[in-house]
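Hypothesis: this fold can be encoded by more than one sequence.
Test: take the structure tokens below, design a sequence, compare later.
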């Protein structure tokens, strides 16, 4: 199981963990579009798992259709990571574990979680080692290229030491924590880091099309895509097939996309119940109509829907899909 990442066909195409978005329904839809995509759970608290929080554990729940599934956890207590790793392996039966050392959100950073771990390299290595020793699963790390600036010597050594501590793969977002999601991602430093590691390296940041992925892959083992998939799930299929020299035809018109929107709603209701499922779908529905004629008026109605029937009527669907 430690060889998980070495056994995955390269180049890897991964769906980034996005809090509030990449839940089970989202992941299932992406896997319907392209089964070869590697999915990660949402950003999940190792502390929550350690203290047996039902809400936290529910966040990791998944369908067998999503496998192989990587559980991404965050925190700053090595003991909590170790216990969480055992739980994820033995009880949740996930395929691998990813440690988040890259989230730049102010609330996360101010709590010394996520990308703030870069300020304390020795703790970062201790967390990876404790997690790796507690489980038979492969442990990976997602991080950024720096806190407020790019220091090549620091980030190369940091990643080398993560590998020595037991990391079997590293995903690098090409921005500093200070940049958050502004400016352009710097992929050149990611290519340089890859030269100094023996484990697979995935690049992340600013991939919005198959061409972007083809241009950026270079010496890396894969790419990770996040925000660009919101409202555009089939982008994952376009990228995977482009990198693997296959053909894929994504829906191009709004009418062709409607069945996928309805399927997303159905999956969310199936996993969370109608009330919560519909409530959480509203933000997705708002993005689905972007760019179409009358989008503003339709969006105003979609963000107030209370059941699937209303959604279907508003999207003017007259036949059942995915029945």
């Amino acid at each position: 199981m430690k060889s998980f990442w070495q056994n995955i066909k390269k180049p890897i195409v991964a769906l980034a963990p996005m809090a509030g978005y990449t839940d089970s329904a989202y992941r299932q839809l992406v896997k319907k579009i392209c089964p070869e995509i590697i999915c990660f759970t949402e950003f999940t608290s190792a502390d929550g798992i350690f203290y047996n929080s039902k809400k936290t554990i529910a966040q990791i729940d998944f369908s067998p259709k999503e496998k192989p599934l990587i559980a991404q956890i965050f925190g700053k207590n090595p003991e909590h990571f170790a216990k969480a790793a055992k739980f994820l392996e033995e009880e949740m039966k996930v395929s691998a574990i990813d440690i988040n050392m890259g989230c730049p959100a102010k609330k996360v950073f101010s709590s010394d979680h996520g990308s703030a771990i870069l300020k304390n390299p020795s703790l970062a290595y201790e967390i990876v080692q404790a997690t790796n020793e507690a489980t038979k699963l492969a442990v990976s790390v997602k991080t950024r290229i720096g806190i407020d600036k790019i220091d090549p010597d620091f980030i190369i050594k940091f990643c080398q030491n993560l590998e020595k501590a037991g990391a079997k793969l590293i995903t690098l977002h090409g921005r500093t924590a200070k940049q958050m999601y502004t400016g352009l991602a710097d992929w050149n430093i990611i290519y340089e880091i890859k030269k100094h590691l023996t484990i697979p390296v995935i690049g992340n940041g600013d991939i919005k099309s198959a061409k972007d992925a083809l241009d950026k892959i270079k010496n890396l083992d894969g790419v990770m895509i996040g925000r660009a998939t919101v409202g555009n799930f089939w982008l994952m299929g376009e990228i995977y097939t482009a990198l693997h020299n296959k053909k894929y035809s994504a829906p191009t018109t709004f009418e062709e996309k409607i069945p996928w929107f309805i399927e997303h709603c159905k999956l969310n209701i199936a996993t969370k119940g109608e009330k919560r499922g519909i409530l959480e779908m509203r933000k997705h529905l708002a993005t689905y109509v972007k760019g179409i004629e009358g989008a503003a008026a339709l969006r105003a109605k979609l963000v107030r829907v209370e059941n699937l029937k209303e959604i279907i009527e508003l999207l003017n669907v007259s036949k059942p899909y995915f029945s």
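Residues 317-323 have pLDDT under 50 and may be disordered. Strands lie at 12-15, 38-40, 44-45, 69-74, 96-101, 139-144, 169-173, 201-204, 222-225.
Hypothesis status: open.
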